[in-house]
Amino acid sequence: MSDMTIGKVAEAVGVGVETIRFYERRGLIEQPPRPEGGGYRVYSDEAVQRVQFIRRAQELGFSLREIAGLLSLRTDHDTDAGEVRRLATDKLQDVDRKIERLQHIRRGLMTLLDRCPGEGPLRCCSIIDALEHDERLAGKPTKRKEPDMQTLRLAIEGMHCNGCAEIVRHVLERQAGVKGCSVSHENGEARVAVDTTQTSAEQLAEAVRGAGYSASIVTKAD
């Protein structure tokens, strides 16, 4: 490679022309002077190498501010390699912290999905309820015991319309430990997200029977 226009540099490195201009505005690469007789600015091999260096460093998670520091070290012949290693070690520790945080977020989302009955009106949504009231989702420390949440299925007979399903849903929502439920009169089934340390499946079925419907426990929902 020899002197190249900005478009050729962008093509060679695999970035957009505006990306190179952005790097120039941030002082990461030097903008070459425009030829006195007019024409396009031309970039040296060193400029191409710097753009490649910046892109590779970004792929490793370095910020532009950190990359500016690395570029300074790169051109300082008195720099000890230990300084570069320290910066890389700091970045690795930062990545590890981010991975730990993402794993925490993943566990929280899995917990929410396990509680969710998967259908029904929004006011029964256990995910919305948890986001509004569960402080653990904000990463705050808590000493509360983790609820033994399960999603239970009840087979219900005697429902003839959506009005019947609404009655059954209302009865179930009033039971202790119930975080969400959905009831379908077409399928003759209720799915209930419940803390089983507060209410058992049999207690839920008994509450439905008390409303005048036949109820039996099917199984824990998938």
UniProtKB/TrEMBL annotation:
It comes from the Bacteria. Residues 150-216 form the HMA domain. Pfam families: HMA, MerR_1. PROSITE patterns: HMA_2, HTH_MERR_2. CDD domains: HMA (cd00371), HTH_MerR1 (cd04783). One of its GO terms (biological process) is response to mercury ion. Residues 1-73 form the HTH merR-type domain. Keywords: DNA-binding, Mercuric resistance, Mercury, Metal-binding, Transcription, Transcription regulation. GO terms for molecular function: DNA binding; DNA-binding transcription factor activity; mercury ion binding. Mediates the mercuric-dependent induction of mercury resistance operon. In the absence of mercury MerR represses transcription by binding tightly to the mer operator region; when mercury is present the dimeric complex binds a single ion and becomes a potent transcriptional activator, while remaining bound to the mer site. This is Mercuric resistance operon regulatory protein. It comes from Halomonas organivorans. The lineage of its organism: Bacteria, Pseudomonadati, Pseudomonadota, Gammaproteobacteria, Oceanospirillales.
